[in-house]
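>> Question from a student workshop board

For tomorrow's exercise we were told to take the sequence and the ligand below, predict the bound structure, and bring the output to class. My setup keeps failing. Could a helper post the expected result so I can at least see what it should look like? The ligand is zinc ion.
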Amino acid sequence: MSFRPGALEGARTSPTGGRVEYRLARNAVVSEFRKGRLSKLDVCDAHSELMRAAEHLGSPEREPCPICEEEGGLVTVTFVFGARLPSGGRCVTSQAELDRYRRRKDPVVCYVIEVCARCRWNHLLRMYPSGAGVEGAGRPATGRRAVARKA
Ligand SMILES: [Zn+2]
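>> Workshop helper replied:
Here is what the output should look like for this input. Compare the format with yours to find the bug.
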């Protein structure tokens, strides 16, 4: 059990910039699984495209997977949706690419998804707007700085 409630509070309190956190929903699923109300089949259903993205483009998370509890399997992947992007979204491969989207004139929406490369657990963590002059939402690891700023 590695989830830290402190991290949750920090993420939840700011509605700035249209960012939406899904940590609570994610934790609810994890807790249902731990109580035995959801099976591994229910929660570990990442499709192969997501698994490929996780394997090649995911950024590693420090905490172990909440489902299989293995260390080193958990990653986050970011998909970007917007005009002139594929309808299924584009998987962001680097921070530099994420910065490019942020500087774009067209608005985009970024979805950050947690995936376990070992057991196929996956859940949406957050979504946030970027591009079109939207500032400061794009850094999953250091997002706390950005939250203080008014969009
Ligand atoms: Zn796992």
